[in-house]
Structure prediction request, 446 residues.
Amino acid sequence: MDFIPMGFEIGRPLKTILLHTDANLRFTLTRRIPEIRLTEKEVPLRIESLSLNEFETVINNQSYKLGVYRLYHTEDIPIGIKFRNEWGGVSGDLDQYGFEVPSGLSPILNGDVSFRTQFADDHRRDTEELERTFQINLTRNEDALAKINQLESEGKTVEDFLAGPMNENDQRLRPYLKTPKEQLQRGVNGWRSALLPFHYRQNNLSPPYTCYIQLTITQGNVTNIQRYEYNQKLYEAAKKLNEILFANRQVIIVNQFKGDSFNVLRLPIALKIFANFVYGYNEQIVPMSSFVDSSRILAELRMVINHEFNLIFQHSFVRNAEKLSIFPHQGHFDQLAKALETIENQRIHIGFSQYDKPSANNYFQLLQGWLSTKRNVGSKITFGLKTDQIGEEIIEMVRNGNEGTESTERCVTVPHSEATKVKISYSPRDMGRNYKFLLAARIIKA
Prediction:
């Protein structure tokens, strides 16, 4: 094997090696070699991609996921619980009877970043009303399954039964009888599992399992599982995990950061990361700006406008991004067109999901919003297009709506101010399922 020198700094070979070592390997080394922990913390931590959720941290495609695992003392494991165990356990705490504690009720600790909204999950899972609902669903699935089995034993089909006279009870089962037997059985198993905590509470029984906090570390097809005594809350364990990974580091440099949480990120106190690319939903952007260091200008901020249209475009974290990519819901076009009148980012991109079908009028409306204010030479906005025809229609609308245009195929140039013009064109650009063409409008010298 050829030896490739790494540019060792005289007297600091360990720090130089660590600087060029994958972040996950560094965590493994410090766990196995405690003597290097202090030195490792001093060296800037470089991460290609980082994604944070309340109970999962993903670093360079390696996932650290926490959950509550239920180890049964019998071989009779309810199918619903078995399924949850296979996925790393419950993503939340359990009480003494096995009820899940709503994540929206957990406290926010010092250093945590909250994304909670009025839709936060604060609904209790242990109410009598919920028990009645579960019992009704279980009974209807059981009755439907029994009826199908009865019909099969009599040599009849469900279709013939539904076409004939039906009593009140049969009418109640009608929607369920059209469901495949396998799906009904899964429903029976699921509702029985959901009712178990009510049974344990009613009879003051301890569930027949022991809870553990499970840490599942996954990279590709390789999974490592570690279980710990359940003597702390799951959110406290998440806090400790991120403190082990990130606390007391002078510099954390992340190329791509993605915020996945809509609840609370359990972060070390005073955590700061330097990021080049940030992705998140619009309601996540301001909370994320509290720990993404703003002293370094973002190369790109990618924002998905999900439900509520938040006017955050003048926030310094958004305004200072070199490129602002916005993915709006189709119902937000009017609001976005108005917002484009004041968005000052030099480069803006508007993209759409594969399910949105904006018209040429929608694109033209957004273009007009962007062009309604004076912009510097070099300012640019781009749009994803699904078809060539949409591009032709937009170009034609620009021609018809402006005097003094200069036109070529797939391109039109129109006056913008005394010193500038705007060049609007589109070209093939294969971006997968979402769009096949890219429309660009650029401010150029007159």
Confidence is low (pLDDT under 50) at residues 1-11.
